[in-house]
Amino acid sequence: MDAPNTALQGQDTTAGGRLYVAFELSEKNWKLSLGDGQRAPSRCTVAAGDTTAVLTAIANARARCHLSADAPVYSCYEAGRDGFWLHRWLTEQGIVNLVVDSASIEVNRRARRAKTDRLDSDKLLSMLMRYYAGERRVWAIARIPTPEQEDDRRLHRELERLRQERTAHTNRIRSLLVLHNLRVRYVGGRIWTQWWARQRELLAPGLRAEIDRECERLALVRQQIRLLETQQDQQVRSGAHPGMALLAQLAGIGAGSAWTLTRELFGWRQFRNRREVAGCLGLTPTPYASGTSEVELGISKAGNRRCRWLMVELAWSWLRFQPDSQLSHWFNERFAGAGKRMRRIGIVALARRLAIALWRFFEHGEIPAGAILKSREINMASI
Q: Cys staple from 295: which of 194, 239, 288, 381, with CB 3.0 to 4.6 Å?
């Protein structure tokens, strides 16, 4: 069987006089597929990050397709390791670029299929042409933050990695101690220091030295965590971002949670309705119906994982600190008396409803029904 043409050769799918470029990015080389929708695409390979070679390839493709030097160029690449710097550079060159969600790209459903960087770039080129031919739902487009908005996300992401590193050091120390039947619940603090001073001489020199080095790294990580947490808390309380301080006024939502929700979700994304909020978090249902078979596959998990995890944690916290709210009553009536599995399902549904309520609170100042505030008076100027 002949392989199908993926570049829509010979089909009148686009307006004339345009050049389309698809990037397949990797660590060492970039594969480029270039075409105008009328001729077979041309392909070239450039060194990763070589912007001069990219401009040369575009100029050669224009000449090959008999396009003028000022013919519009449309490009795309998959969101990934290179981030958004390439998008900004292409925009500066006058090229209309799209950053595509990799998970939204359609693939062949055969169990075994050919996959190479060249085929991937050709597929992107084909879908780029289809997108500009009117198939706007052919894939999902990433929303591009400004350089300042992207930089604002560094603090809490570094804090997340440091907390994971702290857990890794703690678990390593406890595991080493268990080798000699020494068991501790907490590593760090005054009690740990006193206990370790008594026990360390009982261990072999190599093991003792390894645990000491782990303790030094753990102390450094904890110091950096305290520094970042203090910086984060000060910025929330200073009112640098009114919406962030507003979220932190709700009982059950701390400064760190308000920071993450603002920097990752509400602060720079513009949502038109509640469905977009739930979709961005990946908390939308995924039904599967074919003929007489109807199955619910659970939530899509196609959105921002940091905020999705955070919203589930905040949902449990909401039940504890906001027991008289309408959302808590809704959960208790439907899921509190059910089994453990149903409560887990219910908490995801509560997380979705809570995210929508927080979005309305952030955008319009609508306090969730029955919710209480840490400060009874809301500064209306900050809403």
A: 288
